Write the structure tokens for this entry.
Amino acid sequence: MRLLIVNTSEKTGGAAVASIRLMNALNNNGVKARMLVRDKETDEITVAPVGHYWKAQFAFLWERLCIFFHLHLRREHLFEIDIANAGIDITRTRYFKEADIIHLAWVNQGMLSLKGIRKILDSGKPVVWTMHDLWPATAICHYSRGCNSYQTACHNCRLLPGGGGKNDLSAKVWRKKHKIIHNSTIHFVTCSKWLQRQAVKSGLFHHQQVTAIPNPINTHIFAKGDKNEARRALGLPLRENIILFVSQRVTDERKGMAYFVDALRHLVEKHPDIAKNTVVAILGGHSEDIAAELPLTAYPLGYVSDEHKIVNVYNSADVFVLPSLEDNLPNTIMEAMACGVPCVGFDVGGIPEMIDHLTTGYVAKFRDSDDLADGIAWALDDSNHERLSHNSVAKVVKNYSEHAVAMQYLDVYTDALAQKRYNI
């Protein structure tokens, strides 16, 4: 079985990380998988650039310009919207022609246009599409944030000036997507059951199959290590408790940094005995901008791409906190758990599927900074730590290992091939 995974980036973003891991998992379990990307960032031979660099850049810029126009020349929401009006035709590449199955991942920001997706479907090859957010099931947004219009037909979009209208940009893109998806067979996969529950409600997905399969992780790389060695390698204190926050861009509002800061203030006020022996490590872009806002000593580690250094960061921590306001199945929680680090997060999205409350960590009430602080304090209690650490590793090995996830995807691929042969 020859598989082509299509994603905008090779390394940047959660979908890229998940796609690379899936490709490796499949290659280790009997599938000949490779990846096609717009942004190639390494010399990995199983990842191919789509080529036509300037065409790709033009597609990206043209889409942003069109969105900017519809936003009345305002930057707000500029990167929360994707309309897929421009992209690259991958059906002409030899990688596409050689593949038995096309596996779409995150294909926005100029990678694939709606017209290009239609051409892929018309090729007759089975198509599997992993949803890393809700965009395939909506018109233009990646997260619905309480809007239910996508369950019937998108219009009056909250992201557009004045709330859009009955025939706004979202309504027009919705109609285009409906023409493509309605009469096509696509095997959709969501990374969490939460996203699956949202996706099946979409007016675009009538008669479409949606399966929930988590992202995989290499448990040989992301594994529990010596805490003191990890701290020495990073220049972090050896004796204090370390609270860890990780995000590609730590100032991303959706990742909940404001609630993290507020929770630390509650921690200092309610648990001064814990706070006096606790510091914070922040991994991600713009971490230096946040450090001064925290009521505890902070160690901004910046953006790190080296996987082994990232593993050291997790192994240095006593608790990992991710107060996301909306999230699918965060790779960061999976990575922390694989390293035996208890996790604390809000009861939202796919997070409570990952964190088993009081078993592998603490699931706090949504948008409740006070409860988040209590969860951090509870996870830092020495009497809980060894049990939480053991349970976290065990859950990752059972549910998110490369072999476990690859076997579930093989079932989807087999069904897709069988259905295509039957239809033919």
